Amino acid sequence: MVMSSSIPTCYHVLQSCILNTPLFTDIATKINISTGSIRARKISLSLSATYPSPITQTTINDLNFEDRATRFRIKGLVQRITTLSSSNNKTQMLQILEKDPEFQTISDFNLLLMALVIAQKLDICLSIFAKLPSFQLVPDCCTHSIMIRCHCEKNDMDEAKRALDTALEKGFRPDAATFTVLISSLCKRGRVNKAREAFEAMGRKGYKASVQAKNCLLKGLSYVGKVDEALEMLMGMKGTSLEPDIYSYTAVMDGLCKVGRSGEAMELLDEVVGMGLVPSVVMFNTLIQGYSREGRPMEGAAVLELMKKHECIPDCVSYNTVLHGLLKWNEVLAALRVYKKMVGLGLEVDVRLMGTLVRRLCKRSRRKNSLLQDAYDVFEKMKERGPVVDQPTFEVMIQALCVGKRFDHAFATVNEMVELGYSPEAITFEKVILGLCAGGRVDDAVSTLVLLHASGGIPSKISYDMLIKELNEAGRLFCGCNLFGSALKLGVFPTREPRLNVIGWEELQVTRLS
Hints:
The protein has helices at 10-13, 68-85, 90-98, 106-118, 122-130, 141-153, 157-169, 176-188, 192-204, 211-223, 227-237, 246-258, 262-274, 281-293, 297-309, 316-328, 332-345, 351-364, 371-383, 391-403, 407-419, 426-438, 442-454, 461-473, 477-489, 502-513, and strands at residues 29-34, 37-42.
C-alpha cells in the first residue's frame, strides 16, 4: 500500500486546474519544479481506476517511493532530459531512457510523464509517450489520465478528447477528476457544447457527477454569454445532491454582471447570505466590476461597506476596481476619497489609476484651487514608485502648477522631466517661462528657455518677447541682445527688440572720451 504522508497531496501540485478536485487522487509522489530540476518527495498520490481489460496492468503500487535510489534516479533522469530539451535534442533524450536499465516499469514512466507535465515540458512528454512500445511497456489507466492532462495543458482539446476515448475503449476508467479537468479546459476555451458532451459521458459511464464539474459548466456558460442557461442550471442544482456552493454562485454572478444585470447578481448575493454561506472577496469584486461596467460606480463603492458588514475584508483588487470605476465615470472627488483610504490602509494603488487621478484633479483644480495640492501629493507618491510617471502626466501637472501660480514646483518639475529623458512640448516650457517672468524670476525663465533648446525644442516667439521685455525693464542690455541674436539664429523673429538706454549710452561715450 502507499504510505501516508503529512506533506500535501498531488492536488496542491496540480492546483492550476482551478478545481476543488485533484486530477490525480492517489498517485505516488509529488514533484517539485525548480529551475529546470524536479525533485521527487515522499507523498501520497494515485489514480483511482478499475481494470476490466485483459491487458497486463502495472499499477502505481508497484513503485517503492521509500527507496532513495528510485527517487534520485528519477531526479537525475528528469534533469538530464530537461537540459537536453533546451537544445531540442529529442534523439539523445530518448537514448538516455533506453540506456537506463532500471527504468523498466510503467509506474516509473508515469512518474516521469507527470513530472514533465508539471514542468510544462509537454512536447517531451508526448515524445516519450509515443516511444513506450519500444520499451516493451503498455500504458495503464494512470498513463492515459496523465496524457489527457498533457493535451489539456497544450490547449489541444481534440487530442485530449481522443485520449479519453482511447482510454475508455481499452476498458480503463479514469476517475471523475480526470473528466472534470477535461470539462474545465473545454469551458475555458468556450467549447461549452463539447464540455456538456463530456459531462453527459460521465453519467453514461456510471460516474457520479460532482459539484466541481457542474461549476465548470456554469463558468463556461457564463463565459460565452449563455447566462440564462447558467442561471437555470444553478436553480436546478438546489435541493439535489449537487447543492450549489460559493463557486457556483460566483460563476453565475460573473456572467450576469458581464451582460449588465448586476441587480440580479446582487439578488443572488442576498440568496447566498440567506443560505448561510459566507460570501467571498471574489464574489464582491465581481459585483463591483459589474456596477462599474453599467456606469453605476457609486453603487460599486457602496459594496466596500457591504463587504465590511459581512465581515469580508476588501483587498487591493476591491479598492482598485472601485477606484477604476469612479475615475472611468468621472466621479473624481469620490475617487480621491477612495485613494486616500487606500493609502491610509497601506494598500498599493495601481500606478495607472494614480496617473489618471492626477490628470483629473489637475483639470478640476482650475475651478477648485484646493485640489491642486491633492494632485501634487498623488504625483509625488507616484514618483516614489520609481520612473513610472508618463509624459502626459508630467505635462498636465506642470500646466496645473503654472495655472495655480506655483512656479517653484513647475520649474523643478520641468527640470526633472528633462532629466528623465522626456521631451516636453514647447507649450509646457512656454507656460513655465511666462509664469516665471510674471513672478520676476527672469534668470530661471532664461534657464528654462535654454533647457527647452537643449532638449531639442524651439522656443516660441511669445517666450522670446516676454523674456526680452523683462530684460529690457531690468536694464540688462547684453543679455537681451544675446537672446535676440539666438532667436534669429533659430529662425524665430521676436516682436520685441533689445532696447538701448539712450542716457546710459551717452554717459558711456563721455566716459570713454574723458
